[in-house]
Amino acid sequence: MLRAFQSLGFAVFPCKWKTRSLHFFPQLIPISNPANFPAEFSSPTVFFQSRCRGLKMSADRSESNSDAASSSTSSNSSSAAMASTTHKPKVSFCQSCGGPTMHVIPEGEEKMRAVCSLCGKIHYENPKMVVGCLVEHNNKVLLCKRKIQPSYGLWTLPAGFLEIGESAAEGATRETLEEACAEVEVLSPFAQLDIPRIGQSYVIFRSKLKKPQFSPGPESLDCALFSLDEIPFDSLAFSSIYVTLKMYIEDVKTGAFKFHYCTINKRPGSSPSDPLGFALDYHLHS
Ligand SMILES: [Zn+2]
């Protein structure tokens, strides 16, 4: 349930954006020269890369850009290009005329597209935005136990797909009302997390309860406030939630909330809902 990569335009990020140490994430990324990294990254098998430069993948991260939901497991630029030409579009029938689609690379393009065999319409596939709230209350955060697949029975922040006609903040508050029956006020944007290979981009807002009341909605088995040292990190639903909560805890420790941008790449062979099956390739913050 996650992706996006394209149009953020890193070149326009102000220079005050910084990279950040991510030693709290248990990702497994082989490195060619561990000695170049700080002590907290010196484990032979565990460390994170965090860079404040272009989004182009480097060849030494070949296992970091996997995708359980995709046939491709490549990550460097050439293999990524190959993946774009071998990716099979999921659209089988034309959304305009209902005709069957064929999978071809249209003239002047580089990617395989679903093209209607009757009217010729090209069906582009674009990432979906997932919006949610990190609800704070009395030094605790609100989590929901999922009553639906994927990740049934695991904990998540209230979040879901943004719908046409609503802003990201509106969608996040709506999802929180639906999943936790909680009325919240958005305080600030907290994180954007792109998960390119499964086509999702998360936007998470810090928010607070308007009233100290919540209860499980139809998609939740349970809802509860957790103090930061009680968060069930071994029972979280998604990698995006894992990353968000880890960043939040770090910000609470420093006493300064930032806006974070991350790119999460699913690891080869991992389930889309495996909360630890990912590599965090970029982490920038304000
Ligand atoms: Zn058509």
UniProtKB/TrEMBL annotation:
Residues 59-81 are annotated as: Disordered. Residues 65-81 have a biased composition (Low complexity). PROSITE patterns: NUDIX. Pfam families: NUDIX, Zn_ribbon_Nudix. Residues 126-249 form the Nudix hydrolase domain. This is Nudix hydrolase domain-containing protein. It comes from Aristolochia fimbriata.
